[in-house]
Amino acid sequence: MRFASQGTVRIVVGCGLLVMLVSHVSWADGPYVADSQMHGLRISQASGETSEAVTEDKVDDLWTRKRLTGDWGGARTSLEDAGITLKLYSQTQYMVNMHGGLETKNGNDFGSSYDLTLLFDLEKMKLIPGGTLFFRIKGTSGGEVSDFDREKIGGLFKTNTDGSTEEPIYVDKWWWQQRLFEDRVDLRLGRLCAVKDLIDRNMVAGDEDSQFMNASLVYNPTIPHKTGMGVFVHVKFTDWIGFRTLVVDPESVARRVGLDTAFHGSDRARAFAELDLTPKFDSANGKLPGNYRVGTWYQPHPKAVYRNTLGGLLAPRSRSGDMGFYIGIDQMIWKETDDEGDKQGVSVFARYGYAHGDVNRFDHFWSFGGQYTGLIPGRDKDTLGLGFAQGIMSGQYHDEIDDGADRETVYELYYAYQVTPWCVITPDLQFVTNPGGDNDGRDAFVGGLRLRVSF
Q1: What is the C-alpha to C-alpha distance for residues 332 and 415, in angstroms, rounded to an integer?
Q2: pLDDT tens digits, residue range 222-239?
């Protein structure tokens, strides 16, 4: 195996020494919970942190507090009690192409991002019962990470989904949420992220900041995903049967609020519909939660049809009215203890998607994998994840555009090591076969290291 440079070796060895060092230090276990707003959960589920924060800041221990900056002398808890919740996260990733792909020379790059979320609970503020305002301000650096995938790997799936642009600050998402009929109806209006937050959510493979890094294990690439102005409705018919529908503007620009494209120009809104089942199965150690999804999507705007124009002799074609469907599951299959709040155990996931091959490069996609939280005794908050994904190139793309097009496959293994409740280091390994979906492509072995800090 050949590394990109001697500097890479030093970094990898240094990270290994760091992990071995902190593994011999006995930190008190603290809660590590991914921001549920990133996953599109109901906001009422994400706001129950006040009592925990009070307990944590009575001690005010740097190593056991939930966030690096603590409770700000009680100000953070007071704000949350008043209905204002502020969260700040930073993510830094280092990626290196260790073998294969297009090129290993200087095949390493950094990327980073930060997320600042503001949540205003209008019910706590005694303004609107069941109402909430949410904003996420984001910034990224290290746009060279996109160059890394394009120039060093040559794959169709980004090996690092986060921090792949160069935007210092912008409002990524914002919405007004209204919960009605005892939380049976969830209505949202604003700049919404369709996939991952609201549609095809996945609690095992759905957050690039704390779980898998490769895009194929965060999204289903057969589903068109875009953040833009839209309206979302989720209706819970029973405690475990629900229906989701979403209409969103796909022409929205990241640096703009979204009103300019949502209400101007041609009508090209994307529509999604999803039936979601959320059963909880009995086990010897309590309930095992699961999520099962079946959905479809439609986009009216014209897309180019894959066609060999014989060097321009034949006219290109396009068609409108593209649609597809998908299936997704995530299920906890084993729980270590009967403590309801203990998340230790094994969870699995699987996805499948279909799209028409005449206008979509992938007409079939599938992925599966799982995670084990608390695998190592005494490391109850650490998570080991293993995933597999494969995108199958469309037959028409193969016949008309590239007769070498076949499929791209990704294997990913990560271990999220909680140094403190506010700091998580994640070594990551990826093996990409047929990068670019090309039979002649060199398989790539990619290493990554992610640092996530909650302030």
Answers
A1: 18
A2: 999 878 899 999 999 999
Picking from 85, 90, 105, the residue whose alpha carbon sits closest to that of residue 37 is 85
> Mean pLDDT score of the chain, rounded to an integer?
84
Taking alpha carbons only, the member of 453, 414, 438 closest to residue 213 is 414
Spatial CA neighbour of 203 closest among 416, 40, 46: 40
Residue 352 in tokens: 């499948």
Query: What are 326-351's pLDDT values in tens digits?
Result: 999 999 999 999 998 899 999 999 99
Helices (H) and strands (E) in the chain, counts: 7, 19
Residues 6+ apart with CB under 8 A from 163: 91, 92, 93, 111, 112, 113, 140, 141, 142, 145
Residue whose pair of structure tokens reads 């230790």 in the numeric block: 344
Residue 141 contacts residue 69 (beta carbons within 8 Å): no
Separation of first and last alpha carbons in the chain: 38
pLDDT (tens digit per residue) in 62-91: 889 999 999 999 999 999 999 999 999 999
Distances (CA, A) of 122 to 84, 117, 182: 9, 16, 16
The answer to whether the beta carbons of residues 136 and 170 sit under 8 Å apart is no
Least confident of 17-31, 176-190, 315-329, 411-425: 17-31
Helices (H), 297-451: 395-400
Helix ranges (H only) for 33-169 are: 43-46, 50-59, 75-81, 144-147
Q: Is 17 helix (H, G, I), strand (E, B) or coil?
A: helix
Q: CA 440, CA 100: separation in Å to the nearest integer?
A: 12
Distance CA 245, CA 232 (A): 6
Residues facing 94 on adjacent strands: 110, 449
Nearest partner of 410 among 370, 449, 372, 445, judged by Cα: 445
